[in-house]
Amino acid sequence: MTGAECPFEEGEDTAMVATGGVAQLPEVLDTSFRSALRRLDRAGLLARVSRTVDPDLEVAGLMKSHDAGAALLFESVKDHDVPVVGNVFATPESSEAAMDSTGPS
Questions:
Q1: Residue 13 has pLDDT above 50, yes or no
Q2: Using the 8-state DSSP alphabet, how is residue 60 labeled?
Q3: C-alpha angle 73/77/83, rounded to 5°?
Q4: C-beta separation of 39 from 96 below 8 A
Q5: Measured between alpha carbons, how far is 90 from 63 in angstroms, rounded to an integer?
Q6: For 22-46, how does the pLDDT look when each residue is reduced to its tens digit (9 = 90+)?
Q7: What's the CA gap between 83 and 79, in Å, rounded?
Q8: Nearest one of 96, 91, 81, 92 to 36, comparing CA atoms
Q9: Distances (CA, A) of 13 to 7, 10, 67, 100
């Protein structure tokens, strides 16, 4: 396959693996936010707050008090239908867990 026929360029970031004459991209990380939260939860770095919290200063205050700790998932936020998550990238450990990275070698 020539460069004109291939939509991907070989290189450090878009390396292609040729198997059996068929070019394939290497496996990539699932970067959806829900997947990142699942990885945090599996690593024990996601704390769930199940009681109803007030979005007016209470959520921010709780996040500030846990700056160097686990990410926080507020499951019930007053007057809101969706949960709120914070402090996902508050520490190197939580950042690495969320992005499925072990950090520099």
A1: no
A2: H
A3: 45
A4: no
A5: 10
A6: 666 666 777 789 999 999 999 999 9
A7: 11
A8: 96
A9: 14, 8, 33, 17
What does each C-alpha distance from 55 to 1, 45, 47, 62, 85 come to in angstroms? 56, 22, 17, 10, 12
Q: What is the pLDDT of residues 46-89, one digit of tens each?
A: 999 999 999 999 999 999 998 888 999 999 999 999 999 999 99
What are the structure tokens assigned to 52, written together? 């109803």
Question: Which among 62, 70, 60, 65 has a CA at the least distance from the CA of 91?
Answer: 70
pLDDT of residue 3: 43
Rounded alpha-carbon distances, angstroms, from residue 15 to 2, 21, 24, 32, 104: 15, 15, 9, 22, 20
Of residues 26, 67, 63, 71, the one with CA closest to residue 44: 71
For every residue of 27-53, DSSP letters joined together read P-----HHHHHHHHHHTT-EEEEEEEE
Chain centroid, CA 76 distance in Å: 21
